Amino acid sequence: MKKVAILRGINVSGHKKIKMEDLKKMFEDSGCTDVTTYIQSGNVIFNSEIDNNSELKQILEKAIKDTFGFDVPVIIRSHEDLQNILNNTPCGSINLEADGAKYLLTMLAEAPDTDKVETLMSYVKEPEQLVVKEENIYLYCPNGYGETKLSNVFIEKKLGVQATTRNWKTITKLHDMCEG
Fold this sequence. Notes:
The chain has helices at 20-29, 53-68, 79-87, 96-99, 114-121, 152-159, 168-179, and strands at 2-7, 33-38, 43-47, 74-78, 103-108, 129-133, 136-140, 163-167.
């Protein structure tokens, strides 16, 4: 089954450096097949016979720790999950072609508590938009992601769950790579 692993915080600001060819080999050594990486920020498309994403997450996080010597949170989504994300985006009037770099998806390791979501929503300032759907947050930052308080770290702290964020263009590309 085609899956995507999204690694949090590698190759950012010179920290937790992992070459994509080394990451690909680690995935293959962990039993994954048809492994492809996309850009340097830790996006891996692969096949796995393990259906359980929680089990696969644990295997891959341990392999990263054993291979590279540091902890890296991994979030797994299936090709079907990505299709559902694309089909069910609450983007409204946002032009995804023009503003795909300002429209982001924050993937959560698990669905957050409702009370924590309510607290997070109090930090959304117009014209920003934020919608939480199960294990995903759709975030629109028309002034740019670098200008919002709603960073990945901020969201993790407010919700108390692991998260990683990619822009819409990256999500679309990862979906397309699963199909190809």
